[in-house]
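Morning run. Coffee first, then this:
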Amino acid sequence: MKEFSSAVQMNASQNKVAPMEAENLIGDFQPLIDQLGSADGLELAGAANASLRLDHVNDLAGLKKFLETYRTQLLAPIELPLICQACTHASRNEFSELIALDQQIARDGRLKMFAAASQSVGEIQLKRLRPLRDQRGLQRFIRAVDAGEARAWHTLIYGITLASFSLPLRQGLQNYAQQTLRGFVRSASRAGHFTEEDCENLLQEISATIPAMIDGLVANPFSPDVSAASR
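And here it is:
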């Protein structure tokens, strides 16, 4: 995390953006976390047809199950691959492909339940990118969002942000995973059923497989399995 923060500050200075502002660009995902943990829950299609219900978590075993379900059915197959694809497209200035990917996500029924929260977070992040007038591809994407041709999903904007500030993709993916998982734990712990030590141990356990997953994504961001995650 320290290395990622240093990279944010260095690249922010190069792009003439205040370091603290650039660090904010990695996102405040609490609105999305609140949506995922709302009474409506998040319905995910798939073999398990799982429903994530953070509001029903009342013990450590329940929290562990929730985090594992999120990791295996949303974070690993959908969110991290989309961030990786968006960053790769943006770094290549492939904004036509990014607009097409944004439209493709909108057709994914698995994401319908939290579309409003995702786009709300994405719009906040995109607003912070709007001053980068010299990045023509980015401005084209922004015009597509303004015209209603793209929806600014938070995963795509996060990936675009990494590319726009030349931030390390691997560390950016790790930061996203850790920040989101920790946000869920923080939301659940407000009920007071978990000790700080329990939460930290659980986070380490759930996060253990993430580095290897990220290595695979970075090595081949457009592998068949990854591309299928957004269909």
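The longest strand covers residues 42-43. Good start to the day.
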